[in-house]
Fold this sequence. Notes:
The protein has helices at 6-12, 20-36, 43-59, 62-69. By secondary structure, it is mainly α. Helix 2 (20-36) crosses helix 3.
Amino acid sequence: MVSVSLTLVESATRPKLATPHSIKNLTSIVHALATVGEEPVSYKYLEMAAESKEEFSKEFSEESRVESMYV
């Protein structure tokens, strides 16, 4: 088991405050990436997960969902 500091997880989930749900989602992504890579969980995967979460949030923000409903 890898111990990740709460500060690191919080910084990965900004700009929103880190909630238990967002931390669980982030760690699930990290675990999946490490499993596919056949490597132990590491900081590298935490960075990748945080980056993909940020890109996903930008792509599917509330604004873009509402706009796409009426186009």
